[in-house]
Amino acid sequence: MSPKVFIIILNWNGCNDTIECIESLKKVNYPNFSVVVVDNASSDSSIDIIPRKYRDISFIEVKKNLGFAGGNNIGIKYALTHEADYILLLNNDTTVESNFLSELVNAAEANKKIGILGPKIYFYSEPVRIWFGGGKLNLLRTKGTHADYMKIDNKELAAKMPVQTKYITGCCLLVKKEVIQKVGLMSEDYFLYYEDVDWCLRVKKAGWQIFFVPSSMIYHKQSRSAGEHTFPYIYYHSRNGLILGSRFGATTLTYLLSFWIFAKQIIKLFIGYNRNWARPVIKGVVDFWLLKRGKLEGYY
After folding, report:
1. Could you tell me the residue ranges of all domains in the chain?
2. Which of left, alpha, beta for 229 (phi over 0: left; psi -120 to 50: alpha)?
3. Is the distance from CB of 90 to CB of 185 less than 8 angstroms?
4. By CB distance 3.0 to 4.6 Å, which of 2, 45, 134, 251 could disulfide with 147?
5. Which helix (H) or strand (E) holds 62?
6. Where does the record place the Glycosyltransferase 2-like domain (predicted)?
7. Given 3.40.50.300, 3.90.550.60, 3.40.50.720, 3.40.630.100, which CATH number is that of 5-220?
8. Torsion angle of C-alpha atoms 21, 22, 28, 33, degrees rounded to 10
9. 166-181 residue pLDDT tens
């Protein structure tokens, strides 16, 4: 029998996107998977519509927004108690190719050293343009970036063989059960952004490899829940990158970098340049210094 995969979809006020995602999963040709939707305290019609429309999936309602890691961890714990061999995290604002899961599982089963792996991800609105083609990290490990971001891809000529990469985005991430049992769940210190990188680095430190599987393909609508360049988006990227660097990079250099970032943003405020960006960055740096982790209060 094929290994059992639990697909965890985290929903927060994204009923229509989640429905489209579930519908796309109906065409998946992998024979042994279950879908779990974790609702992260939505205020839209999600909790009324989704469980009624899909009687064959598990729906878990959370009473408060636990963030990306917290919400997914609820689903992961559920999957582990229901005999999961693999767990796939899948953003609700995605659609998938029919063979995406088979390609991921086949790659994982072929190499016992692989702990986490993920697909090639295209923009939903432009299905030949790459959103994620593997993960890259800067030297201080304070910033993760997407390989081949915005590149136009020729799907027929593109490489198909799995390759090692620095990290896999939590937008679509397949992890083996035994990896979680040894390394633990995702860190909830970040609330949003960089918890996937943190997890991959912990998994790699424990001896497993991280692989990108380009023959597996999905499509992403991009930042539907947080909104790019909003206060929380900038705040979480600023604070969480520093948290990551302090844990996995050079801690002293990370703190020196944080002082430089802070000074630069103070100058921007003083001269009136890009103040809407400077304020959340300053807040993020200060909260990093104060060891404030988790959710930014006052926002969803």
Report:
1. 5-220, 231-289
2. left
3. no
4. 134
5. strand 58-62
6. 7-183
7. 3.90.550.60
8. 130
9. 999 999 999 999 999 9
